[in-house]
Specification:
3 helices, 29% helix, Alpha-D-Glucose-1,6-Bisphosphate, Chain A, domain 4, single chain, ASHA1/2-like_C, globular, START-like_dom_sf, alpha+beta
């Protein structure tokens, strides 16, 4: 039996993008590129590295959990009372890459955060695709 009071929800965004995993990886792991599509940051792609993402509305405290170059990147995403984990998965396809982002950890009482993340990640993905189209 599951307890719906303690179950967490996830926001998942998946897209087929016409770029190789190596190019997407650069946009996910190079600080100056992350700033262009997500937020200001002091990210470094090393397991255990603590970093911040910052925007006009506040700061997100993060820590890198897993790094598998060109395949998987995972980090905590802690802001106010939301404790979650963001995981990126890159899978090569015949036409580019299947890009999947999952943010897991939304409690039932965090509907506002959940809805905000659903909207926000769609916008971030659009920004990411614009950066990918522009960089070498």
């Amino acid at each position: 039996m599951t307890n719906t009071e303690t179950e967490t929800r996830a926001v998942v965004v998946e897209r087929e993008v016409a770029f190789p995993p190596e190019k997407i990886w650069r946009a996910l792991t190079q600080s100056h590129l992350i700033e262009e599509w997500l937020m200001k940051n002091d990210f470094k792609p090393y397991q255990g590295h603590r970093f911040n993402l910052s925007a006009d509305w506040g700061v997100v405290d993060c820590q890198v959990q897993a790094v598998e170059p060109n395949k998987t990147l995972s980090y905590t995403w802690d802001t106010k009372d939301l404790k979650s984990v963001v995981t990126w998965t890159l899978t090569p396809t015949n036409t580019g890459t299947h890009l999947r982002m999952e943010q897991l950890g939304f409690r039932p009482d965090q509907q506002q955060y959940y809805q905000g993340a659903q909207y926000g990640w769609q916008r971030f993905f659009t920004n990411l695709e614009q950066v990918l189209a522009r960089i070498e």
